[in-house]
Amino acid sequence: MKHSFSILLVGVGGFLGSVMRYLVALAFAPADAGFPFATMTVNIAGSFLIGFISELAVSTSMVSPEARLLLVTGFCGGFTTFSAYMYEDASLVREGQLLYAGMYLAGSIIGGFAALYSGTLAAKPWT
After folding, report:
1. Is the separation of the CB atoms in 120 and 55 below 8 Å?
2. CB-side neighbour CA atoms (13 Å) of 66
């Protein structure tokens, strides 16, 4: 696979993932209660997708290397936002919202890991 094609796949996937991330943020905007529910949801969903797609890619021939670049590196890379997650958690700490900061940190990490593992298990019937 040529590098320029790989870059195109990652770019297209990243574009789509970023747009989806923005749509999730818009969907959660009416319920904004000072807690970053949209980012936490995206992190958990993205972790599930990465686990599911990666397991299929490693254990079957259902996901080609090109599709993996498009979906895992591109889409999930554009969709998940752990840099925003860290920034938002630090903001909660700076604002003295230690309970929310702890909930956000624990919820994203534990939920993301559980979703990743669930994605791997959900892919098992196809392996």
Report:
1. yes
2. 8
Q: What is the pLDDT along the chain (127 residues), one digit of tens a residue?
A: 689 999 999 999 999 999 999 999 999 998 878 899 999 999 999 999 999 999 999 999 999 999 999 999 999 999 997 888 898 999 999 999 999 999 999 999 999 999 999 999 999 999 9
List C-alpha distances in Å: 89 to 31, 39, 55, 113. Answer: 18, 11, 30, 18
Residue 57 amino acid letter: A
* Rounded-to-integer distance, Cα 97 and Cα 118, Å: 31
